[in-house]
Design brief:
The chain is of the alpha+beta class. Helices cover 42% and strands 23% of the residues. A 6-stranded antiparallel beta sheet has the order 7-8-1-2-9-10, covered by helices on one side.
Length: 288
């Protein structure tokens, strides 16, 4: 009752998985660890596989050897479906003989698998979309998952979805995690896509705001123009702080008219923000 994909991007040093299901909290059956690998254990998933997988990978075992360990430790292995990938190895998918309406496909840097699906086209579409997609691993995993969903996905319907990616930030003491987990939603996969797009917009707004705060003269003026243009269609609470920063920047350079206009947007988005205008000598003009 689930379809998923595990994958790596060795160049970006990213590893992760994506999953969707008619079951609550489908994402709990998978995990990824930076520069190590990723696994999903679905159908009648065995959660005990997950710690064993990472332990044995770190011991230097291949995914094929780890599958044999799973078979030996689990007398219900024929009820399981597993997707695995090693960051410094290959991918593997296993589907037990008792798993219904199940399909799987292995490609370069990925394995996708599913059960209780409307048909083989779900897995075919996931694989094709992943192979043809570009960008970050999170974007590619989402694209693949959406392709499977668009093909019909789980024959029982949809409730939850998750995209999880870990990547190295070149500092051995830190790493970055992308984790979008959606529950009890009519379109859980599409909602993850919306959140991914929103995150990109927030990052862009933050980067533009940073340029405004760190520049002077014409460069600052150009940066404010760029930020204002970017925010033009984003009068939403998510971007409230960026509008505030832009208004303050206008005041800093002496452009009172634009500062007032921008603070008006701030108050339009969140009327309670009017109380913060006491710090500026323009409150009456903003609220007029």
């Amino acid at each position: 009752m689930t379809f998923s994909i595990v994958a790596v991007d060795r160049e970006r040093k990213e590893v992760g998985f994506a999953i969707s299901s008619c079951f609550w909290n489908a994402g709990q059956v998978g995990f990824a660890k930076m520069e190590t690998g990723a696994i999903v254990s679905q159908a009648q998933g065995n959660m005990e596989f997950i710690p064993v997988f990472f332990e044995k990978l770190e011991d230097g075992m291949s995914v094929e050897e780890i599958l044999e360990i799973f078979k030996n430790m689990d007398d219900k292995i024929e009820n399981r479906q597993v997707g695995m990938i090693a960051f410094r190895g290959n991918a593997l998918a296993f589907t037990g003989s008792k798993v219904s309406s199940s399909f799987q496909k292995i490609g370069t840097d990925y394995a996708c698998q599913g059960n209780i699906l409307v048909g083989k086209e779900v897995i075919d579409n996931i694989a094709k979309a992943f192979e043809e997609s570009e960008g970050s691993l999170a974007d590619r995993l989402y694209t693949a998952l959406q392709a499977g969903d668009d093909a019909g996905g789980d024959m029982r319907g949809k409730i939850s979805a998750r995209v999880y990616v870990e990547r190295d930030r070149k500092n051995p003491l830190t790493h970055v995690t992308t984790d979008f987990n959606v529950e009890e939603h009519p379109e859980p996969v599409r909602e993850i896509g919306r959140l991914l797009a929103l995150r990109k917009s927030i990052i862009t707004a933050w980067e533009l705001t940073e340029v405004v705060s760190k520049t002077n003269g014409k460069e600052k003026d150009d940066a404010m123009i760029a930020l204002a243009q970017f925010l033009e269609d984003k009068r939403d609470r998510v971007f409230l702080d960026f509008f505030s920063s832009l208004a303050e920047a206008y005041l800093e350079v002496g452009d009172r008219e634009k500062a007032i206009a921008t603070f008006k947007i701030v108050v339009e988005i969140s009327p309670r923000m009017a109380t913060t205008l006491d710090d500026y000598a323009i409150k009456d003009e903003v609220l007029s």
